[in-house]
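User: Quick one: structure for sequence A, then sequence B.

Assistant: Sequence A:
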Amino acid sequence: MMEGRRIRALVVDDEPLARRRLRRLLERDPDVETVADCGDGSAAVAAIAEQAPDLVFLDVQMPEIDGFGVLERLPAGRTPLVVFVTAYDQYALRAFEVSAVDYLLKPFDRRRFDQALQRAKARLAAEEAAGGFGRRTLALLEELRARASHCERLVVKAGGRAFFLKTDEIDWIEAEGKYVRLHVGRESHLLREPISTLEAQLDPRRFLRIHRSTIVNVDRVRELQPWFHNEYRVLLRDGTELMLSRGCRKKLAELLKVPL
């Protein structure tokens, strides 16, 4: 509880069932008062301005105005603490957990929800004692903006069909003339796009061009081995061996947090 008063919470989700479930979970805690729930981003912006909640459970993916679009529209200094509720995959979660109050991945159970609420309570108490709140949420917003600018899915055509491929499933990428070959486990797919164009679409915190014809998912790197003439080989978890050009050594070392 915050200085003798209940925490004012707001629920935002475009799915009615999800909103009702969040409200029911919040009703179990006597320290929390749910002041409103909203089904879209526009309503959320208005409710935050009117209700001035301490804490918002905010869906990330909504039509028209998504979760971080809501935060962008709030006046400076009026940003509440936020627990994002999302269907993003586990890799996206890891990217934000450092700066987020919490990140609830749908579907979540009561135990996981309670854990998120306790974290929010602790943050509210600490930041109120420090004279304000919302600074970490703004840092998270910057992370979300950066994330949103990078491609998370590619459309691949093969065998007369088209399907979506999540970029985090890609092990490494190889240039083949004006095309690229995506290596995914034991499979590979040809994408009609130059390697430089694809490189610009990928998250640079995860994918690095280690050679003029090679991009690697750094999460797949198992080992770096010294090679001739002060060069290195990059060994992936599946045993694939790739060459690392000298010009890319520093950046790869920074991403992997290892000395080279």
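Sequence B:
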Amino acid sequence: MSKRAIVLAGGKGTRLKPYTITLPKPLVPVGDDMPVLEIIIRQLKSNGFDHITLAVNHMSEIIKAFFGNGSKWNIKIDYSEETKPLGTMGPLKNIEDLPENFLVMNGDIITDLNYASFFDEHVQNSSVFTISSFERDEQVDYGVLSTKNGILNSLSEKPLVKYEVSMGIYMLSREILRFIPKDKEFGFDQLMHSLIEDKKQVLVKQHADYWLDIGRPSDYEIAINDYESKIKKHLF
């Protein structure tokens, strides 16, 4: 089965400054001078994807010059260019040749997720939308108070909080396009609210191994340190 992926690579990388002053975020190097977006493309190729569309905006000419038509990686790469920010889901409305099922992901993700299995499970479940999720631990930097009627019941000093988050990797069925407005900024959160309101079933598949969002400076530093031991082995 032919596999198509849309990689969202149009963000300004504001959170990652100063690294993104002269480079678009997807071209920030992680290891061996390899940009995060090249890591993604190599992984998608090794998982059987044969066509990648990069949704670009900020510094798009640099991204296009680096990746070209994808021949360097023996994969087809083309581009959907925004003339204004369209959010995470808005760019999909501008891509006219989307297949019945396709993967959408942010261009700043490093993970060992099996993209091929994620794709196939979505197709087998006949879902309109599948989210890949991750359980994240976050250290609270404060003493957290539990109170009732102004009286302290307990104190947790800098507790570790666990919560399930979206990894920024999704599988979509083409039916989803009818929920997305044309030429308007439209985000993942807005689409989820629309699907819930319309009583559409959205599947969530939790991934338990490795995931980083290098848009966060702390995750970017972890990725650099992890490249040799945890990331490089997943490249082909």
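The chain has a mean pLDDT of 89. The first strand starts at residue 4 and ends at 8.

User: Thanks, that's what I needed.
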